[in-house]
Amino acid sequence: MKILGFDLGDGESAVTILDEASTVEPRVIPIDGKVSILSAVGDRDGKIVVGEAASVLLGSTNTQVRFKSRYLTDPGAHVEIRRFAQGVCSELTRTEPALMAEVSSTVVGCPAGWGEGRRAQYAALMESAGFPNVSVVPESRAAFMYARHARGLRVDPALMQKSAMVIDVGSSTTDFAYIVDGHQQSLSLFGNTSLGGGLMDDRILEKCVNLSRDRDRLREVMAESPAWHSYCELEARRLKERYFLDEEKWKETPLKKRIVVCYKETLSLELQLDAQMVHDLITEPIPAIGGRSFLGCLQDALNAAVQVSRDNPPKVVILTGGASRMMFLQEECRAAFKDSLLILCPEPECSIARGLAYCGRVDENLRVFRNEVASMARGEVLNTLVNKSVHELYEPIAKALYETAVESVVETVNLWKRGGIDTIDELDSVLTERISRDFSGEAVRERLTETIRDWLDRLTDKLQDQLMNLCYRCGVPPEKMTLNSTHVDTGLNSVDLSLTDAMGMDILSGIIGVVLAAVGAALCGGGGVAILGTGPVGMIVGASAGLLLALLGKSTLEKALRGVHIPLLIRAVVTEGAVRNGLKRQEKAIEGEIIRALADPRTGFAARLSSSLAETLGAQMEKLARDAEMSITA
Fold first, then answer.
1. Among the three residues 339, 365, 391, which one is the final residue of a domain in this structure?
2. Does residue 131 contact residue 4 with C-beta atoms inside 8 Å?
3. What's the pLDDT tens digit per position in 45-80?
4. What is residue 633's DSSP assignment?
5. Domain total in the chain
6. Is 76 exposed, middle or buried (0-12, 13-18, 19+ CB in 10 A)?
7. Cα dist from 266 to 58, 214, 217, whole Å
8. Is residue 333 within 8 Å of 302, Cβ to Cβ?
9. Are residues 173 and 230 in the same domain?
């Protein structure tokens, strides 16, 4: 499929086409045989006509120009923009029907100062005119994309990657984009939404009318006939463009052109432009910009750009837009950024349209990249990989939990020995809380750090192959999406700490229950721990217990002992070594129960572990993706 770049400017417009998968630069689609056309719209023979065809000399009526600059302030401009867009779309469909049938999306430019709401409104307007799947991006961003990808500019990529300032001077606005390390900065899109080269067109016409002997009658024509006013303004624009294409040629001799105005009568108007008039045009107050001069507003905008970039001044300044040919403007840019390399676009009238097409491809690649990274991190890909390899974790997890449980038991039994816990039943309750806490603590994390790191490395190696393929398809440098170097610093702790969540309360309760049974049996006699051991106190206790055992039976005796307050003197014979030995005899059984619980699909350990990984590893992958987005070069 193909992407259309539509630069609808206040003075001139251009359209380009780009194949999504092609390495060829966007191609300009001529309209009426021209690579760029005047942004003029009219009616003739019941049809919309655009560009030169909208001239009143060719029979066009209701001719309108400079409607883009009035979009924010004049509701009527919406109608004119839509008519012009309809006319362009119809002309493209008429001359390139097969090509237009392959267009999947359209990217239209706007001034940097437009907010999201205005852009959405503008996109809807363009779609109502016939363009498919419209997105609206700042023209300064399009200029940057053009400068970054265009082969004709031959800008050193190293300079572009360091810092750059893009200045787009159009007919109605002056926009800036500030880029550092390939990323647009938070204050990257700014400018003057009223300062553009089109301000000079009307001023040239006004000055030339004032110099004419027919000034009064010409003013009446301009006031009564918008079509003739538009025609004269367009002729003034053509004169200006011709002048700035070769300023040296007209330095001494004024550039002149005589036009005939046929309204109620035939009048003659001589348009002219020379160096003195240009000086007056840029230094005199202009009502449209609050009575300030063009030069003063330009210098303020440049000073603001210098301030924004003062911490990392641009290594390269890229100047584009139709008005960028004006020599005084180039000189002001050089003065503002003395230490920067100034790059002039060779075809400024088409550079934005080409950049818009590049933006369309980059944004589509970004959409695919984001969606597939999210799917990979939070969907079936990660689930499948976890399910295939989770068995590698069962034994080390069981070993770490057993060892942690032993330490928890020793500490709790010591508290019981000192009288901090009254009965063995109370000991069970305290031990349950302690084990639950310790399973989520440092002991488990430290014991499992290397195991989980190695396991994650094997898992991410498998993910890495799929990520590399995605990077190549979307033009992301593969080194931007390397996982193995990231999760030790930012992801591993979160994965470890969420291990208890992955096990779930059903598994944890089962593990704790096994440990409590072993401890209870040991202390009450079933495990042969020190209460029934040797020594004077042990013998007395042993004899008493033997008598009770004969009278009550084993199970009844153990139940009775659980609720009994055992004197501290008797508790003292329970040594730490005896407790550890008692649990050691149960080690294989406890670890086996843990492994069976983890492996049982009904407990959902693998699913919960996958979900836990998705929150950490998945979030890390998406963070890498965000950091890599502006590095897309396809």
1. 365
2. yes
3. 889 999 888 888 888 888 888 888 888 888 889 999
4. -
5. 3
6. exposed
7. 16, 11, 10
8. yes
9. no
